[in-house]
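Write out the 3D structure for:
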Amino acid sequence: MFNKIILFTCVLIISSNIMAKQNTKVSKSLCLKIDAKITTAKKNMRVIYTDKKGHKLRSKLKALQKKKAYCKISRFPTSL
């Protein structure tokens, strides 16, 4: 019984830290502009570019999509 309480407490602490980190990465003002930035990044990917620039664009798009997911978790709007 005592082991279950300790396990539950550990899981609770770990999950609260994860949720706290997600909420600190976004703000309402950032979320309002995120859709426009994603559209711009996708538009830039349609242009001819080098491998190095392509890698940079893909990583930027991935980061923006991750921030958009955090905005949705925080229930912030993502477009104007």
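DSSP finds three helices and no strands in the chain.
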